[in-house]
Amino acid sequence: MEDAAISVQGLDHFFGIGEARKQAIWDINLDIERGKLTILMGPSGSGKTTLLTLMGCLRDVQHGSVRLLGTQTHGASEAQLVGLRRKLGFIFQAHNLHESLSATQNVLMGLQVHGKGDPILQRNAAHHMLRLLGLGDRLDYLPHSLSGGQKQRVAVARALVSNPDVVFADEPTAALDKDSGRTVVEMLKALGQSRGVTTVMVTHDNRILELADRIITLEEGRIVNDVSQNPQPL
Question: Between the CA of residue 101 and those of 75, 116, 143, what are the distances in Å?
Fold first, then answer.
């Protein structure tokens, strides 16, 4: 697909060496359309997170091709990879917040990779994102004063504050209650509709599947099902 946000061809991946070498990903071929919410599903050990990290430049491509936002990542220079990562947002099941920084300061870290900017505008952007996620009364709280779900929402705000072109999310709703989890996914969906943001999400959360434009199921490192949906606009 010419205008795909991500294009994967003949992708294999192995862990270990020698007799312990094990293949985790087998001949994956897929195109991820821009502005869509794509969900990766499958049992534990099926290769979902491995595929996500390969597409997101968090793991080196061993064999095959990953083209991300028009750039071939296999063999790309460090400068090219740094430039790509500045266009990406990452949300993980573990919030990975800095315990000594407030919610606002943690979100501001999502803007620091882009270099210096107007501090007032950056702080306003961080506050706006936190308020969207229901944390307007927690702007200056340290992580130890936040619940698990609130910490996860701070991590989501950090990933989205820089207006990334692609968001990679690994179990982003696992620590959230039903309403909070749906709010996060609806926000990702809305960003796709309004700004063309592409989201690739690993999840076991059946509560949000109806929001997906596409659901890809993996088993033992292979794609076994690939279904496009037509969810209702938000």
Answer: 36, 19, 8
Task: Give, in degrees to the nearest 5, the angle at Cα 126 between 125 and 128.
Answer: 65
What is the reported pTM?
A: 0.91
Domains of the chain: residue spans and CATH:
34-57+86-228 (3.40.50.300)
Mean of pLDDT values over 205-216: 92
Assess whether pLDDT exceeds 80 at residue 159.
yes
Are 61 and 53 in contact by the 8 Å Cβ rule? The answer is no
pLDDT tens-digit map of 5-30 = 999 999 999 999 888 999 999 999 99
Write the CB contacts of 53 (distance below 8 Å, at least 6 apart in sequence).
59, 168
CA–CA separation, 95 vs 68, rounded Å? 25
Measured at the alpha carbon of residue 81, what is the angle toward residues 5 and 67, in degrees to the nearest 5? 30
Q: How many CB atoms lie within 10 A of CB 65?
A: 15
Asked if residue 96 has pLDDT above 90, the reply is no
Which tens digits make up the pLDDT trace of 72-90? 999 889 889 888 988 999 9
Residue among 60, 52, 88, 89 nearest 76 (CA)? 60
